[in-house]
Automatic annotation (TrEMBL):
Compartments reported by the entry: Plastid, Chloroplast
Name of the protein in question: D-3-phosphoglycerate dehydrogenase
GO molecular function list: NAD binding; phosphoglycerate dehydrogenase activity
This enzyme's EC code(s): 1.1.1.95
CDD domains on file: ACT_3PGDH-xct, PGDH_4
ACT domain sequence ranges: 544-616
Lineage: Eukaryota, Viridiplantae, Streptophyta, Embryophyta, Tracheophyta
Any Pfam family: ACT
Domain of life according to the entry: Eukaryota
InterPro entries referenced in this protein's UniProt entry, alphabetically: ACT-like_dom_sf, ACT_dom, Ado_hCys_hydrolase_NAD-bd, ASB_dom_sf, D-isomer_2_OHA_DH_cat_dom, D-isomer_DH_CS, D-isomer_DH_CS1, D-isomer_DH_NAD-bd
A single GO cellular-component term on record: chloroplast stroma
Region of interest (Disordered), residue spans: 1-26
Gene3D superfamilies per record: 3.30.70.260, D-3-phosphoglycerate dehydrogenase, domain 3, NAD(P)-binding Rossmann-like Domain
Keyword Magnesium among UniProt keywords: no
Length: 616
């Protein structure tokens, strides 16, 4: 992810008069610029009021009783139905207009009159909508979790903060998951349809009991953990897979954290609560179904795209999967002739996970409070796009922002699935003084790299610490002075250390038992320089294969030949070793992702002790 996408400068920011005092910009900015430590709350969203023109609508004005000075009152446009409780929160400080059912053209014509826009899933907040805001629109609120209908990049470029309501639906979604679990196990939907058709078929619809059965919860976040609590009350044995879930949290609920493969192999029921990311897209596929018990039952109230729907139909037809209960689909609504929806052994609902009276009211209040706080200039824990950072600071930090995120992204991929991440330590080595740079941005990017590959959470400077705390990540920082370095460069290196975890690649474990990665910026490009106890020199671009091997001649040629035979282009190779003839690590950069057969051939080389493929 480029630094410009992660954090963009505020187009409304006014340059500080102190900015020109030094040729090299300092990373701890004066208090008059948005990045300042003490004034970031008010600077995140504040911008000069737009200059009114003859064609622009005038803003409503209220007077204070004390000084009678003019003060603009925010105007909020609610484009889709919002509960009265949420509207009441907004009306306490803003003028609110509800305009439901607008066409895209109507929205484009109207949006320039408002400081904030609130939508659900039915309204598309496109680049055209944001540009039509003419610089006045400052906040977009999404009443719900998903933000697929909002152009985040365009919003960031426009200086518009996007907030959502991610927590109010938790219990409703968990309850719906349990409802589908029980109704599927007892064939409630099928028996209901048969009886209404005049058929009394008691023998046909014999169900299965839940007590004593193993439920695998795939994704142990807010919803997944609530499902676990309820499943324990039903007498089920609960196991879970989530690379983030702390083991103590799972134990407190009575769940056991296991790897992905162990979870799907042991489960009688599988309840899916994973976000849809490039990593999880179609993760339940033909290969996954083959590893499951015959007769397994699957529930999905998360995202449709995590299941390969064609593969699920095949598994249902073969009997590998006995039943499925689905609330979400890859395409919504699904086609009327969908084989999956029409399958006799599938129970379906039209994305009702959040559809309770209580959840809808909770969403309304949560999004109203988030929008109101954002308009006041407060930091929002539910912000899903980036706050503004001065361009001169971003320019200097850009390669280090990328380095920090990629180190986090690599580190989390090295963690074994059943091992929850407990402690993260970030060590900055720099020739600059401790007050000469602010590490919040880099810490946020390490968090982003660790969290985003296996989560739907968007991490930025606003919500990084909150996100880490919510997920049980204890992040500590240390600064180490490096006298021989150049003070012109903000950092000599960044180290990311994960403690008390198991690694799927033993070579990344340091002598102290932690996963350790170190990187630095060389010629403006992030490089990986240390993996565990091994020194390497790897440009952090494309994809990476790490091989731990016996140090002997010919290894580079053997691996290179295997990749070449499969037309996998090698961009670089680097070998680090502890002692001659002992163990070494080979780091191989590849432009394409090798297929499973190619990776297995590399692993079959006698001198290769272990290997891992990592996406950068």
């Amino acid at each position: 992810m480029s630094a410009s996408r992660a954090l963009l400068s505020n187009p409304h920011a006014v340059a500080s008069p102190t900015a020109s005092r030094a040729a090299r910009p300092r990373l701890s900015a004066p208090s008059t610029v948005p990045f300042a430590r003490l004034r970031i709350r008010s600077a995140i969203l504040s911008s000069p009021a737009p200059v009114a023109t003859a064609s622009e609508p005038r803003r409503r004005i209220s007077r204070t009783g004390s000084d009678a000075s003019l003060r603009p009152k925010p105007a909020v446009l609610v484009a889709e139905k919002l509960g009265e409780a949420g509207l009441a929160v907004l009306r306490q400080f803003a003028d609110v207009e509800c305009a439901y059912g607008m066409s895209p053209a109507d929205l484009l014509a109207k949006v320039a009159q408002f400081d904030a826009l609130i939508v659900r899933s039915g309204t598309k907040v496109t680049r055209e909508v944001l540009e039509a805001g003419r610089g006045r629109l400052r906040v977009v609120g999404r009443a719900g979790v998903g933000i697929d209908n909002v152009d985040l990049q365009a919003a960031t470029e426009a200086g518009c903060l996007v907030v959502n309501a991610p927590t109010a639906n938790t219990v409703a979604a968990a309850e719906h998951g349990i409802a589908l679990l029980a109704s599927m196990a007892r064939n409630v939907a099928q028996a209901d349809a048969a009886l209404k058709a005049g058929k009394w078929q008691r023998a046909k619809y014999v169900g299965v009991s839940l007590v004593g059965k193993t439920l695998a919860i795939m994704g142990f976040g807010k919803v997944g953990s609530e499902v676990a609590r309820r499943a324990k009350g039903l007498g089920m044995h609960v196991i879970a897979h989530d690379p983030y879930a702390p083991a103590d949290k799972a134990r407190a609920i009575g769940a056991e954290l296991v790897s992905f493969e162990e979870a799907i192999a042991k489960a009688d029921f599988i309840s899916i609560h994973m976000p849809l990311t490039p990593t999880t897209s179609k993760v339940f596929n033909d290969e996954s179904f083959k590893k499951m018990k015959t007769g397994v039952r699957i529930i999905n109230v998360a995202r449709g795209g995590v299941i390969d729907e064609d593969a699920l139909v095949r598994a249902l037809d073969s009997g590998k999967v006995a039943q499925a209960a689905l609330d979400v689909f890859t395409v919504e609504p699904p086609p009327k002739d969908s084989k999956l929806v029409l399958h006799e052994n599938v129970t379906v609902t039209p994305h009702l996970g959040a559809s309770t009276v209580e959840a809808q009211e909770g969403v309304a209040i949560e999004i109203a409070e988030a929008v109101a706080g954002a308009l006041r200039g407060e930091l929002s824990a539910t912000a899903v796009n980036a706050p503004m950072v001065p361009a001169e600071v971003l320019s200097e930090l850009a390669p280090y922002v990328s380095l920090a995120e990629k180190l986090g992204r690599l580190a989390v991929q090295l963690v074994a699935g059943e091992s929850g991440i407990k402690g993260v330590k970030v060590v900055y080595t720099s020739a600059r003084g401790p007050d000469d740079f602010d590490t919040r941005l880099l810490r946020a990017m390490v968090t982003k790299g660790i969290v985003e590959p296996v989560s739907s959470t968007f991490v930025n400077l606003v919500n990084a610490d909150y996100t880490a705390k919510q997920r049980g990540l204890r992040i500590t920082e240390e600064r180490v002075s490096h006298d021989s370095g150049s003070a012109e460069a903000p950092l000599e290196s960044i180290q990311v250390r994960l403690s008390h975890v198991k690694s799927k690649f033993a070579g990344a474990i340091s002598d102290g038992g932690d996963i350790v990665l170190v990187g630095r910026v060389k010629y403006g490009v992030p490089h990986l320089t240390v993996v565990g106890p091994y020194e390497v020199d790897v440009s952090m671009e494309g994809n990476l294969i790490l091989c731990r091997q016996i140090d002997q001649p010919g290894m580079i040629g053997k691996v290179g030949n295997i990749l070449g035979q499969k037309n996998v282009n090698v961009s670089f190779m680097s070998v680090g070793r502890t002692f001659r003839g002992k163990q070494a690590i080979m780091a191989i950069g590849v432009d394409e992702e090798p297929d499973k057969e190619t990776l297995e051939k590399i692993g079959a080389i006698p001198a290769v002790e272990e290997f891992v493929f990592l996406e950068l």
